[in-house]
Amino acid sequence: MLSNLSVLWLFIFVMIIVASPSAYTQAYLDPGSGSFIIQVLVASILGLLVSLRIFGRRIFYFLTRTTPSDGTVDSETQNPSDNV
Asked: The whole model's pTM is what?
């Protein structure tokens, strides 16, 4: 079975092949477009990192179907009568 890193590299390779232009194209990528593409990539990566920082434990526990063993409880589920 492929490891997660192998699947990631395969995905990146396929995206490069799909996104590569054909032999004859009439496209122009000016510096403004290039900087916009870089800005979108950086914002996407930072957004993913912030999301993982905020929701990382919940995603981990959801995917592994386990419960926290350190005794921490979400503030929403700690005392439901306080939310009324």
From this structure: 0.45
For the chain, give the number of residues. 84
Integer Cα distance of 49 and 56 in angstroms: 9
**2-43 per-position pLDDT tens digit:** 677 788 888 888 888 887 766 676 777 788 888 999 999 999
| Three-state helix/strand/coil letters over the chain | CCCHHHHHHHHHHHHHHHHCCCCCCCCCCCHHHHHHHHHHHHHHHHHHHHHHHHHHHHHHHHHHCCCCCCCCCCHHHHCHHHHC
